[in-house]
Amino acid sequence: MGQGLWRVARNQQLQQQAFNENFLNREQGRRLISTSATNLNYRKQIQGGMDIYHLLRARKSKDEQGFINLEMLPPELSFTILSYLNATDLCLASCVWQNLANDELLWQGLCKSTWSHCSIYNKQTPPEFSFRNLYMQLDEGSLTFNANPQEGIEYFMSHGILDDSPKEISKFIFCTRTLNWKKLRIYLDERRDVLDDLVTLHNFSNQFLPNALREFFRHIHAPEERGEYLETLITKFSHRFCSCNPELTTELGLSPDAVYVLCYSLILLSIDLSSPHVKNKMSKREFIRNTRRAAQNISEDFVGHLYDNIYLIGHVAA
């Protein structure tokens, strides 16, 4: 009994000593880390002066709290900070730093990053021209287009932003990502002249056929149902793909008609493999057999690679 109590007391004493040693070791480690960080910051200040972190924490006075006054920084640094803001935040920043946030270079960058091509960019602008006002007009025109495409294009033309030319309109559409794709599809279906110029802006050189078709449908969205408009799109794509790859089409025996057949086969295969309603998926052998019946000059290896691409990557017109 006495020996048992002695062992319990001895174990408690050993556990307390181990706890104290671990605690002291942790405290010493924390002090070493804190000392090292302080010395590192001190070395940075001695060697290179205040770094960017301390510069951004600068205050007008020691007692002042809040955001840094950008006017205290070098102009290059202030403009770099403001260039990360969107239009709404930049307008809010202009309430505090009016001269900086209203700078034309900032608003010019916002315009060209959202609408990369406008006819007005290549024109000589009047002295009172403002890129901030242009941004507001471009945003208003885009919203108008997404409600009524024809009125949106007319808005851009009436304000001198776009020239009344199919080529200029197609470049604007090609370089803009703020337009609603459903409204854009309706507009292109009505304006086939703009669609023709839009297709020529694509470069499919040295691209695998399914990848080129995906890129094409990312800019010109496919209709939800098969019909005359889809046939028109595939026809225009087939001719453009062959014109961009004359050597490839010669080696593989591809012609616009053969590419047209392959595109339709790829679309149907994409639907078959991705649809949850299709239980019996088309096999690679079935795809090769069905495709070569319509395009006999195409090799089995090439058609097999097409199947593998759709199977691994997915839909071409999603």
Helices, strands, pairings?
Elements: H1 2-48, H2 52-56, H3 75-82, H4 87-94, H5 98-101, H6 104-114, H7 131-147, H8 149-158, H9 166-174, H10 181-190, H11 192-200, H12 209-219, H13 228-244, H14 246-252, H15 256-274, H16 284-294, H17 300-313
Low-pLDDT stretches are: 1-10, 32-50, 59-63
Question: What is the total number of structural domains?
Answer: 3
- Measured as a percent range, the helix fraction is 55-70%
| CATH class term of the largest domain | Mainly Alpha
Pfam families: F-box-like, Sec7
Protein name: F-box only protein 8
InterPro entries: F-box-like_dom_sf (IPR036047), F-box_dom (IPR001810), FBXO8_F-box (IPR048003), Sec7_C_sf (IPR023394), Sec7_dom (IPR000904), Sec7_dom_sf (IPR035999)
GO molecular function: guanyl-nucleotide exchange factor activity
Task: Summarize the structure in words.
- This is F-box only protein 8.
- InterPro entries: F-box-like_dom_sf, F-box_dom, FBXO8_F-box, Sec7_C_sf, Sec7_dom, Sec7_dom_sf.
- By secondary structure, the chain is mostly helical.
- It folds into three domains: 51-102, no CATH class; 113-191, Orthogonal Bundle (Annexin V, domain 1); 202-318, Arf Nucleotide-binding Site Opener,domain 2 (Arf Nucleotide-binding Site Opener, domain 2, Orthogonal Bundle).
- The protein has 17 helices and no strands.
- The chain has helices at 2-48, 52-56, 75-82, 87-94, 98-101, 104-114, 131-147, 149-158, 166-174, 181-190, 192-200, 209-219, 228-244, 246-252, 256-274, 284-294, 300-313.
- Helix 15 (256-274) runs parallel beside helix 17 (300-313).
- Mean pLDDT is 79; it is low at 1-10, 32-50 and 59-63.
